[in-house]
Amino acid sequence: MNLTPSISAISSASSASSASSISSGPSVPAGGALLVSGASGALARQAIALLQQHRPDVPLIATTRHPDRLADLAASGVSVRFADFDQPDSLASAFEGASRMLLVSTNTVDAPPRRVTQHRNAIEAARRCGVQHVVYTSFATAGAAQPGPIAADHAATEQLLREGPGGFSVLRNAFYAELLLATLPLACRSHRLPCAPGRGRMTYVARSDCAAAAAAALADGFEGRRVLSIAGEEALDAHTLAALASEVLGVRIEAVETAPDQLEAAWTGCGASAGMARVFAGIDRGMAKGEMEVRESDLRALLGALPPCEPMDMRAFLLAHRAVIVAPPSAAAVAATAS
Ligand SMILES: NC(=O)c1ccc[n+]([C@@H]2O[C@H](COP(=O)([O-])OP(=O)(O)OC[C@H]3O[C@@H](n4cnc5c(N)ncnc54)[C@H](OP(=O)(O)O)[C@@H]3O)[C@@H](O)[C@H]2O)c1
């Protein structure tokens, strides 16, 4: 299944080109705060930092299961509140006073349908509290006919948003480029990058770009319903990635085409744990089928004038993370791989 074209504007009012920049967008409704859930997570923290930088005029609410970890945010004027989507009773006071909410999808991926229940609790509480617009971090394949187990949660959450009242911005994020911080260190050490036969491609996106897109969608004042594709602008097959990584990292890496049923063994042969090998092999098989390629992205339009206005390309990403990728394995990583 290809994702082309992956963008579907749900309401006639929605369009990527209508997205204005975070710094010049219409102001949020009077008296309303912008709320970011899951505020101790990586994406949420980056989104909050951007909002503080570019919209210091708008009050911010940060909800989390771990308020103690966000003392710095509280000290900087953000209203930090406890919220756990597994505890619906915690949400009314947490969401009070918010007009727009960034609902960061939870990482509860191993116990379906728990994640969808969590998101339902959050959406229903937000509606009861008068939140007028929900920005949701979905996944690239959520619109596919057969989205697979992880994307199925996102598809179900999108449906909950569609079924009820209120505006929304569904951000279908591509695979984080940060995935490469798990695979490329193995490739650097083994000089091999296992891949399925063929030239299947993957469109990556830097998590920082997803955070910037989320911040922009939260602050731009858009009131309708839109579904946006958040992806980088290059789709790379494993051979192209290996060549680029070799050049940028200064380490020889060769893409090794491997029969689909041998991919897990190939990854464990490179030093991956059994669990990680299973994940990587599944991604490789998806790439071969064209499931990981996103051919259109709304990222650039959504970011507008927000610095950095350029989506991060793969060369820049590899350079930025070079030290982590080529670092020798830690003792803990070696022990985990051996067990
Ligand atoms: N596109 C991709 O390739 C990709 C890759 C990985 C993950 N994701 C998705 O994107 C999300 C954000 O990514 P990330 O890198 O920021 O992940 P992360 O650092 O692992 O953060 C996990 C997030 O889940 C929240 N959460 C977990 N359980 C919760 C609960 N019961 N109630 C409320 N919030 C809960 C956490 O909030 P608190 O701990 O602050 O409560 C935190 O924001 C992930 O959670 C996942 O759904 C996408």
Short description:
The protein is 40% helix and 17% strand. It is α/β, with parallel strands linked by helices. The chain has a domain at 16-173 and 206-230: Rossmann fold (3-Layer(aba) Sandwich).
Describe how the helices and strands are arranged.
Elements: E1 33-36, H1 42-54, E2 60-64, H2 71-75, E3 79-82, H3 91-95, E4 98-103, H4 114-128, E5 133-139, H5 148-163, E6 167-173, E7 175-176, H6 180-190, E8 192-195, E9 201-205, H7 207-219, E10 225-230, E11 235-237, H8 238-249, E12 254-257, H9 263-269, H10 274-288, H11 299-303, H12 314-320, H13 322-326, H14 331-338
Parallel strand pairs: 1-2, 1-4, 2-3, 4-5, 5-6, 6-10, 7-9, 8-12
Antiparallel strand pairs: 9-11
This protein binds NADP nicotinamide-adenine-dinucleotide phosphate.
Describe this structure in words.
The chain has 339 residues and is an alpha/beta fold. It has a domain at 16-173 and 206-230: Rossmann fold (3-Layer(aba) Sandwich). It contains 14 helices and 12 strands. A 7-stranded parallel sheet has the order 3-2-1-4-5-6-10, sandwiched between helices. It has a 3-stranded mixed sheet with strand order 7-9-11. Strands 8-12 form a two-stranded parallel sheet. Helix 5 links the parallel strand 5 and strand 6. NADP nicotinamide-adenine-dinucleotide phosphate binds next to helix 1, strand 5 and strand 7.
- The CATH topology of the domain at 16-173 and 206-230 comes to Rossmann fold
C-alpha-based Rg, rounded:
20 Å
Number of strands: 12
The CATH C-level class name of the domain at 16-173 and 206-230:
Alpha Beta
The overall pLDDT average reads 88
Catalogue the unreliable spans. Answer: 1-27, 334-339
> Which small compounds were modeled alongside the protein?
NADP nicotinamide-adenine-dinucleotide phosphate
Counted by DSSP, the helix tally is 14
Sheet with most strands: 7 strands, parallel
**In the CATH classification, which architecture of the domain at 16-173 and 206-230 applies?**
3-Layer(aba) Sandwich
CATH superfamily of the domain at 16-173 and 206-230: NAD(P)-binding Rossmann-like Domain
Instruction: Give the strand order of the largest sheet, numbering strands 1, 2, ... along the chain.
Output: 3-2-1-4-5-6-10
